[in-house]
Specification:
Structural class: alpha+beta
CATH superfamily of the largest domain: monomeric porin ompg
Helix content: 25-40%
Radius of gyration: 23 Å
Largest sheet: 12 strands, antiparallel, barrel
Number of strands: 14
Number of domains: 2
Shape: globular
CATH topology of the largest domain: Porin
Order of helices and strands: HEEHHHHHHHHHEEEEEEEEEEEE
Length: about 500
């Protein structure tokens, strides 16, 4: 393990302990996104469907009391406010941390979780450090753990900002009392902040299933919604009708897409990576744009009234990416008769792992996204964001451990566009760049990561389409004692694509 990829003050934890924790968190991470993949084609009351396949004989509930719970109206926010609880999520977060600590204490094989009053007292007076637990534990497991805190609070009726406070507090509780090792500031960012960005997107998608899939039996909707946001599912099951009123989405314009396909490697520069590269991959990708600008009557008063979510699972390395970004504070605007847009402060959580290296970032950005009707049939949707985050980056298996990475302040930018040709086709292009500086990295080095995702999708029949997709990721790293290191991977693939009910997602306000 070279010191250039680790903070000099990092405090490693035992490998066997983390392997058990990682297995548990991986199971949690697989359940929700795998179920989200079934969310590409929402059903209607007229024709209940799952992934576009009709489900006969499933009629909406006819009992008025049941329908009031299952099919809430947007004006039920007052009822949510009346039933909200500050005590319930606090107790749930405490219980969740307690049970996770007990499980790890019993099955991890490490004494890291043998916390006591003396270790709590010691941690309260300790300086916060940067740990180097396995990358997936810190950059996937901790954000998902934070999303659970956020989900407990949101599903108990708390608003986004209140839930952010609970998420941040739940992470502090774990760092101080869940482990006896010194509290970690990188985990606090990943869980306490990144967890809210991920958790809010999961909460919104979970509620969209409950709100708009009224053509399916209640048990189906509850199961899918609970798998997307387990904390939401728990509160709905545990507290009866108190937390059954569905969050009012205000009927956003949204675009969803599920892709299943095969890709092959076109470029491979492994650099220092010793990972065995899978030249060919089977991939499942789900993405959603929620609250796209331009729909008459839809407003952006609440955080994440607009957000983008994407998750890609690979047979080669599990999660190839998990990313979400949402408008925290902002407003919509008009640029002539053919343009509608948003401007404001966005929060984002990104995890990208193209086999040979990995990067994860929790960030705040200023930017805009919108839609422009270029002609009667052609629409251009786009996003431009510029900001800064706290990022982790490292080579995959440069050594025999999963701890070979470092942290740093990361200025970053994103440019994304989708050119929509009526109901026939779309061209998508997204470019991301991260500059991970040596600030707080302790390595005297820097990383520059560029990621380009381009695809052409052609609709074949109804919601069924074929897509050709190119993905390219490059890392240029420089370290004082190692010099310059380059890594790059490019792939091209063919995907069956199941479009959402809104085809390619153009919002027509004309």
């Amino acid at each position: 393990m070279t010191k250039t990829f680790l903070r000099r003050d990092a405090r490693p934890r035992s490998g066997p302990a983390m392997s058990a924790v990682t297995r548990v968190r991986r199971m949690l991470l697989i359940v929700a996104p795998a179920t989200i993949l079934t969310f590409a084609y929402p059903a209607s009351a007229e024709e209940p469907t799952v992934l576009g396949i009709p489900v006969p004989g499933n009629e909406p509930a006819t009992d008025p009391a049941t329908r009031a719970v299952e099919n809430p109206k947007p004006d039920l926010s007052a009822q949510i406010e009346a039933n909200k609880s500050y005590a319930v999520p606090a107790l749930e977060i405490f219980g969740f941390d307690f049970l996770l600590n007990r499980y790890n204490r019993r099955f991890s094989g490490s004494d890291d979780y043998d916390s006591s009053l003396s270790t709590v007292k010691h941690n309260l007076h300790s300086a916060w450090v940067v740990d180097n637990d396995p990358f997936r534990t810190n950059q996937l497991g901790h954000p998902y753990q934070g999303s659970m805190y956020h989900g407990f609070a949101r599903s108990a009726g708390l608003n986004y900002w209140e839930s952010l406070g609970y998420t941040f507090g739940g992470s502090v509780l774990w760092e101080i009392a869940g482990e006896k090792t010194p509290p970690s500031r990188n985990d606090q960012v990943a869980s306490g902040i990144g967890g809210t960005f991920l958790g809010e997107a999961l909460f919104r998608m979970s509620n969209l299933v409950l709100e708009q899939w009224d053509g399916l039996p209640r048990s189906w909707r509850e199961t899918v919604a609970g798998a997307i946001s387990p904390a939401t599912g728990f509160n709905r099951a545990a507290f009866g009708n108190r937390f059954r009123t569905v969050f009012a989405s205000n009927n956003p314009a949204y675009y969803s897409r599920l892709q299943l396909g095969y890709s092959t490697t076109t470029q491979n520069i492994q650099g220092a990576s010793t990972a065995k590269l899978a030249q060919n991959e089977m991939l499942a990708d789900f993405s959603m744009d929620y609250g796209m600008p331009g729909k008459p009557g839809y407003s952006y008063r609440r955080p994440f009234d607009y957000f983008n979510f994407q998750a890609t699972v690979s047979n080669a390395n599990g999660f190839e990416n998990l990313m979400t970004r949402g408008l925290l504070i902002g407003t919509d605007y008009t640029g002539g008769a053919n343009y509608r847009g948003l401007f404001g402060l966005y929060g984002s959580y990104d995890y990208i792992a193209p086999q040979i290296f990995r990067i994860s970032s929790t960030a705040l950005s200023l930017g805009t996204n919108g839609q422009w009707w270029l002609s009667k049939e052609i629409a251009l949707q786009g996003t431009v964001l510029v900001g800064a985050g706290y990022a982790a980056v490292g080579t995959t298996r440069n050594t025999m451990t999963e701890n070979d990475y470092h942290y740093g302040l990361a200025p970053q930018a994103l440019v994304s566009e989708r050119m929509i040709f009526g109901d026939d086709a779309s061209i998508d292009l997204t470019a991301r760049e991260y500059f991970v500086s040596h600030v707080n990295g302790g390595s005297g080095g820097r990383d520059n990561i560029v990621r380009v995702d381009a695809s052409f999708t052609r609709r074949i029949y109804r919601q069924h389409a074929i897509a050709l997709k190119f993905l390219w990721s490059r890392r240029d790293a420089f370290f004082v004692d190692l010099g310059r290191r380059n890594q790059a991977r490019g792939t091209i693939g063919v995907f069956y694509t199941l479009l959402g009910h809104d085809r390619f997602g153009a919002v027509d306000w004309r």
